[in-house]
User: What shape does this take?
Amino acid sequence: MQETAMCWGFECGDGWFDIIDCLCGTIQGYIDINKHKEIRQVTVDQVKEKYGTLRFYTTGGDNITYGMIAFAENMSGRICETCGKPGKWRGKGWFYTACDEHAKDE
Ligand SMILES: [Zn+2]
Assistant: This one.
């Protein structure tokens, strides 16, 4: 999590970049100001879209960072995965999150 290089290879749309970027920054900031607590460094194993929302798989962290990740995953269900504009969770059988412009089957 300490280098931005980990931000490559994400298996999701560009519209969620800001969510991921804010999540990375928030987690790292939390770990940096709590060094005395010896929180395990968070490393990202995989970031991808699943059932229409963001999934962020990590190693390390604590209940606080798990909460940050849950927040980001929930937010992704309201932000278009394609363009980043406000959207909603859509689909029947195959789910995705999109704005009206990028909605595919409605
Ligand atoms: Zn869109």
The longest helix spans residues 17-33. Confidence is low (pLDDT under 50) at residues 1-6.
